[in-house]
Amino acid sequence: xKEGTVKFYNRSKKFGFITINDTDEEVFVHASxxxxxxxxxxxVTFEVEKGDRGLTAIKVRKA
Length: 63
Description:
0% helix, globular, five-stranded mixed β-barrel, CATH 2.40.50.140, single chain, mainly beta, 60% strand, nucleic acid binding
């Protein structure tokens, strides 16, 4: 599991980005991969999966 901070999340469009701690790398997150509801600045834990368009956060939950 990785840890990070929600940089941006748009509830109406159901997507956003999470900054991974220690690397400052950003990963995409979609509402279908959320376990808990999130909003900007929330601390989260998640797994990373490589998709067609890059890295995606899955199994996202608040830390």
